What we know:
35% helix; single chain
Amino acid sequence: xxxxxxxxxxxxxxxxxxxxxxxxxxxxxxxxxxxxxxxxxxxxxxxxxxxxxxxxxxxxxxxxxxxxxxxxxxxxxxxxxxxxxxxxxxxxxxxxxxx
Length: 99
């Protein structure tokens, strides 16, 4: 794949290129989320990290609803309801084996 020499592009050309790159990255994210959503089912046990990145608390939950852009689940133990982006959801090992 040959990439353009961006040092020779004008500002307007750079903006167009940037828009195309951003749109492609967004589409890749949507595709990845859709692929994950196809593997999930209501009633399955999942886990995910709360806010705070890699050091955040890990939550175990059961899926109660699958939306087009999020997964609604009920945390095991305290019943708290969470809406989680599909790319943050991980199946438990047992659930992954049953897939």
